[in-house]
Amino acid sequence: MNVAGAGSIDFAVLQQAAEWFAVLRAETVAEHDRLAWQRWLEAQPQHRLAWQRVEHISGQFERLPQRQAARSALQARGVNRRQAVKMLSLLCGGGALLHAARARPWQAWQADQRTAVGEVREGLLSDGSRLWLNTDSAVDVAFSSAERRLALYRGELLVETAGEARPFSVETASGRVQVAGARFGVRERDGATLVLAYEGALEVFATRLGWRQRVEAGEQLSFSADHLDRPTPLRLGAQAWTHGVLQADDMRLTDFIDELARYQHGHLGCDPRVAELRLVGAFPLADRARIFTALEASLPVRVVQRLPWWITVEPRQA
């Protein structure tokens, strides 16, 4: 079943659905409350979509331990298959790895390196390159004597390549990023790939278009399999996550909340009435409670938690 994303449902309707969910999950529910909820549910198609959205998030949150256990079991059974895929990718010049980068979602569960929601990890690759993985990310590694390849299934990575001659590339569902020696980031988001060049230049290849675009140090570029944007200047603080920090430099509150939502389970939303407020600062990703306190202290907002997994940032009441 496809469940509409929060962005396609009116904020107020989502809030109503969360409130009804809290009412119906109480230990005792009056019959008139059940009937009122049923009338609300049937009043508009948006109400039913919002209710499905809340149920979907609730199910993800409450089944998390079981999901983690199932994923671990799948990984244990898939070790031989993963090794076979990587060997085939090397024999075929990387074609199988590219195919794997487009396959979803179970390949991500078997990926060589993964992070959980809220986890940021740093490590070394076999060639000495440094790899950072952001929250909820998955990547496969396939190095040979001739080349170095990564396949990013989901999330975000940052690489500081070791200085050697072998070419280094990252495959995504949108295409390929080729580097010769650089510090760069790649992020999968909303069906597209965002490439960020911190040091050194990159070459981006869009799969379906057959186009290529050079990205210089200090630039970023978004592309998909059939669309290629022009490079734009890097957002200040774009790599701060590698130090466990979410940096805002005159950032819209709604964009800040969207970024922060990547680091926690459940729903984190921003009321449209405060969406355009601007935010400046560096916020510790490991301490969301501290971030919420800072938001309430610096902006005319309040952070409301209607359910353990449903939090919204709303206008402060007079």
What would you say this structure looks like, in words?
The structure is a single chain. By secondary structure, the chain is α+β, with helices and mostly antiparallel strands. The protein folds into 3 domains: 6-62, no CATH class; 79-233, Jelly Rolls (Sandwich); 244-315, Phage tail protein beta-alpha-beta fold, CATH 3.55.50.30. Helix content is 33%, strand content 33%. The protein has 9 helices and 20 strands. A hairpin with a 4-residue loop joins strand 11 (202-206) and strand 12 (211-215). Helix 5 (79-91) packs across helix 6 (95-102). The radius of gyration is 22 Å and the shape is elongated. Residues 15-56 form the FecR N-terminal domain. This is FecR domain-containing protein. InterPro entries: FecR, FecR_N, Ferrdict_sens_TM. It holds the Pfam family DUF4880.
Which architecture of the largest domain would the CATH scheme give at its second level?
Sandwich
Helix content, binned percent? 25-40%
Mean pLDDT: 83
Structural class: alpha+beta
Q: Which fold does the CATH topology of the largest domain refer to? A: Jelly Rolls
Helix count, per DSSP?
9
User: Please, how many domains?
Assistant: 3
Q: Note the run of SSEs as H and E.
A: HHHHHHHEEEEEEEEEEEEEEEEHEEHEE
| Assembly context of the chains | single chain
Number of strands: 20
Strand fraction band? 25-35%
The main sheet comes to:
8 strands, antiparallel
End-to-end C-alpha gap: 42 Å
**Spans of at least 5 consecutive residues with low confidence:** 64-81, 83-101
Inertia-based shape = elongated
Broad CATH class of the largest domain: Mainly Beta
What would you report as the Rg, rounded to the nearest angstrom?
22 Å
